[in-house]
Amino acid sequence: MRYYASKCHDRLNGKPFDIEKDYPFLCLNPKYKATLSAPCEYILDSGAFQDVTGDRLTYAQALDRQLTFEKGLGQEAHAIVSYDRLVDEQKSETGSQFKARVDTDTGDEYVEDTIKAAEYLVGQRKRLGERHLILSCQGTTVPQYLGCLDNILDLSTLTGGGSKDIIGIGGFCILSRSKVYEEQFDEIMKIAIPRIAERGLKRIHIFGMGVFRVLIRTQMMAKRYGIELSYDTSSAEVNATMGRLFSPVDGQLKQVWDKEEKYAEYHPCDIARMNIRLIDGFWREVNQLRR
What DSSP state is assigned to residue 21? Predict the structure, then answer.
């Protein structure tokens, strides 16, 4: 398992958050103004999550936004993410964003959009050179999700992606909210991992989900099929602002400091750095386990 820590800002509660000097694997987003002060391996997200409450871009505009952001960083992305349509994020009547699954019919529409986004990105291989493509999948039910996956696999293998492309698992940012979502995720992965391996792809990336018991189960399954697994989450940064520290004992971010102790007893920037180091160490140990 490889953990890509999300970096959303250059400063965290007033202190420089230049985590790239200490940790080489990051996930960046063109909707945020984070920069890089040291070389690192980073995934360049599409901004689709942040566009839920605004106007969606065309696929070409989304890629141009990513490449413009990348140019400003001065470092080429390790991988670029397709501009999928998220099934677990919605816009309220007041314009705010909230987590909830869309209905199945809307899911059909979002899956179609997600497949077209991947189709556009694979059509840009020559332009994108050595960058890996992360082709995201979405779906509201197991059959709908696997149907999306099959289309994504066809796009990758039939257009020369082979082992260079990475299958992105989206749509499970809400997994921790219900045992039903966790069971659905497990069911999908039990079918998806051997299917991906059979088609010759070697990597899977999970978006925005940091439930460690689920990630460990998925990691062990992926190892049996020779698949490399990675994930990204902003939880180390976000939870640090609330005084939560990663516990390697149970793989959770747990409350350690109260709100009143912020700045007096701890600074969120320091805790975010500690969380990232602890999570990285946790996965180093898990990766040593034999199946």
Answer: G
